[in-house]
Amino acid sequence: MENVSRDLTAPDGANPLRRLSLEQLRRRTSMKWRTYPPDVLPLWVAEMDIPLARPIADALTDAVALGDTGYPAGTAYAEALAEFAHKRWAWAGLAVERTAIVPDVMLGIVEMLKLVSAPGDPVIVNCPVYPPFYQFVGNLDRTVVEAPLGPDMRIDFTVLDDVFRRAASGASRPVYLLCSPHNPTGTVHTAAELTRVARLAREHGVRVVVDEIHAPIVAAGATFVPFLSVPGGENGLSLMSASKAWNLAGLKAAVAIAGPGAADDLARLPEEVSHGPSHLGIIAHTAALRDGGDWLDALLRGLDDNRRLLAALLTEHLPAVGYTPAQGTFLAWLDCRELGSGDDPAEVFLRRGRVALNSGRPFGTGGEGFVRLNLATSPEVITEAVERMASALR
Ligand SMILES: Cc1ncc(COP(=O)(O)O)c(C=O)c1O
Domain coordinates of the chain in residue numbers? Predict the structure, then answer.
C-alpha cells in the first residue's frame, strides 16, 4: 500500500489536485468518501482530493509531537487572516480587536444572526444557495426569504430591493445572508455590486451577514472583494475561514469579523462560543493563512485547468448541459434541464452512472434540474465522472 505521507513532501508549486490516487482517496473516512458504496465516484460535498499543504502538516505534526492539544488561546488566527487579507485583497481594514474565533462558519453565522435579529425575523438569501443556509436559519427560528439570483447568476437588484422593502416593512430586524463568492454558482461579486448591496441594506435598515468562506478561491483574472471593505459595508459582519481553500473542514475553526459599525454587536458574543473551536484547528488554519500562499496558488492553477477540462468534456460528451466556468469556488453548477432527465438529474447520474453529484433541489428555488459538481479533484476523476454521466443517459 502506498504511503500517503510521501505526498506531504510534494513541493508547494506542484498541483495538489494531482497528488493522490483514487486508491488513496478511497481509504479516507470522511463524508465525501464514505457516504456512497465504493463503486460510486464521489464529486459532491465540498471536500478537496488533495494532501495537506506542507506548512499545515508540519504545524499539526509539531503540535502533536509536543502534546500541544489543550484549549486555544490568543489571536494568531485572526492576525494571520488580517495579513493574508492585506496581501491578497489589499484590504488593511481587518482589525484583530474586531474579530472572534468561532467553531466554524455555519455556527458563526448562527451566532451573528442571534446578535442582530430575533426569532421570527426574516433572513434573506440569494437562491439557489448552499442548503445549510435554509437548515441553520430555520433551526434558529428565523424565516428564510428568497431573493433569487438573476439568469446570469448575479444578484438581481430589482428583486433584492423589493425583498428588502417587504422584509423591512414589519417591526422586524431583517438580515441579508450574503454568500460571497456564491455557492453553488461560483459568482464573485464585484466591488460595484457589493457597494450597491451596502447602500440598499442601509436604505432599508437591513443588516448584512456575509459568508466569505470561499474568498481565497478565485480563478485567474478574478478579484475577491471583502464586503467589509466597500463603502457602506462598515456595519456588516463577516465569516471567514481557511477551511475551504486548504481543506480543513475536519479541523474546526473560523473567524467572525465585525466592521467598525458592528463592533458593539460582536462584543456581545457570549464568551462560551469561544469554547467551540478546536486548538488544533486554529493551529492548522493559522499555518494555512500564514505559510500556505504558494500552495494555494498551485491549487488555483489546477482549478483553472479543471474548469477548462470540464467545459471541454461536457462539449464532447454532454453538449446539452449548460456550464459557464465560474470565477470563484471549486464548484461547477450544471444546468441539466435540457437533458430530459427530470427535476433531479443527480438521482439519475447516481443510479445509472454511479457518480455522486449534489442535487440542485436543496439549493432552493432555481435548483431544480441542476446539479453541483466538485472540481477539486484530479483531471482523471473529472474525466471519468463526465463519461459516467454521459453513460447514465444512454
Ligand atoms: C458557502 C459555505 N458556507 C459554509 C460552509 C461550511 O463551512 P463550515 O464547515 O466552516 O461550517 C460551506 C461548505 O462548503 C460553504 O460552501
Answer: 4-53+293-392, 69-291
The one-letter amino acid at 262: A
For residue 11, pLDDT beyond 80: no
**Distance (Å, rounded) from C-alpha 309 to C-alpha 315?**
10
Cis ω on the peptide bond leading into residue 131 (within 30° of 0)? no
**Ligand 1, atom 14: nearest CA belongs to which residue?**
46
Q: What would the mean pLDDT of 153-178 be, rounded to a whole number?
A: 95
**Using an 8 Å Cβ cutoff, are 131 and 125 in contact?**
no
| Residues 110, 113, 115, 118, Cα dihedral to 10° | -120
Distance 53 CA to ligand 1 centre (A): 20
Residue 343: pLDDT band with limits 50, 70, 90: confident
Ligand 1 lining (C-beta closer than 6 Å): 46, 104-106, 130, 179, 183, 211, 213, 241, 243, 249, 254
146 Cβ partners below 8 Å, 6+ apart?
124, 125, 126, 127, 163, 364, 365
Atom 16, ligand 1: residue with shortest CA distance: 183
> Distance (Å, rounded) from C-alpha 9 to C-alpha 314?
34
Direct distance between the N- and C-terminal alpha carbons of the chain, in angstroms, rounded to an integer? 36
How much distance in Å is there from the Cα of 71 to the middle of ligand 1?
23
Q: Is 371 helix (H, G, I), strand (E, B) or coil?
A: strand
Q: Return the CATH fold of 69-291.
A: Aspartate Aminotransferase; domain 2 (3.40.640)
Q: How far is the CA of 45 from the centre of ligand 1 (A)?
A: 10
